[in-house]
Amino acid sequence: MKSQESWSAHSVATVALEERQGDWRADGTVVGREQKPSGAWRVTFRRLRRSHTAMFGMGIAALVFLVAIFADVIAPYGYADMHPEDMLQGPSWQYWFGTDQMGRDVLSRVIYGSRISIYVGVVSTIFGALMGIPLGIIAAYYGGVIDNFIMRLIDIWVAFPNFLLALVISVILGPSVTNVVIALAVVRVPTQARVMRGTALSIKENEYVQAARAVGVQDFRLLLRYILPNCMAPIIVLGTLEVATAIIVEAALSFLGLGTQPPTPSWGWDLRANVVFIEDNPWIAIFPGLAIFVTVLGFNLFGDGLRDALDPRLKQ
Known about the structure:
Elements: H1 2-21, H2 39-50, H3 52-69, H4 71-74, H5 106-142, H6 144-158, H7 162-173, H8 177-203, H9 207-214, H10 219-227, H11 232-255, H12 267-273, H13 283-310
């Protein structure tokens, strides 16, 4: 008992000192101003490199990002370039993935379509996190009535199936890429909030958080500097997996005519536009569908590997 009281007193004194010096780190250790990044992340990266599936998934995700960024350089034709004399041509040396019913190069459409998928997936996940993380961390930290109110609101939110809610929001707002991002961001909020709340509930009981509170650190500073950084690992893993989910939902909404509108290329819209020609010309559906499959697989493999690297106990 005496040693525990001594440690608590030491923690309070240390936090008080480091709050003045500005050198207190979020994991509860004291570091100098020139300290290198936390060794925990270096260990995580080493674990990640040992996972072949995780590195394979990261390679796919990185490749899709590069294709999206350099689409103007990589694509052999413009996404809207039409060649009427070459309509519905099969794969060849001139058109590697064939052409669609307007004579447009399917490969170029797939390459440019990666921009929409990555944009919607990443941006909707970020905005969902920006809304969900504050709700979760506030609910966990304050508890009581605030926690009950936020979590009951989240429960009502979750009662609606994700795709159905995204579909309804897209119908109300109208078809556009921006509205798809809004719909997917709203759908992602409950999951982000729940994960953040669960993680923050355990973090807030740590010795250094209690010590910071004891010396009078303001709530906003305590949440931002001591609790939030230690909650980021599961949020990063969740975000990686949710990018994959958002790509699938965006493709589905575009297929239904509620997402990207022509002539902007989208994997889902290209499947919809060519559906009547698929039976005799399967390549116009195979390659956009394959692009969706490979991209989602890459993000899922990377997310699973990242989760195992951050917490190896989950493998058991």
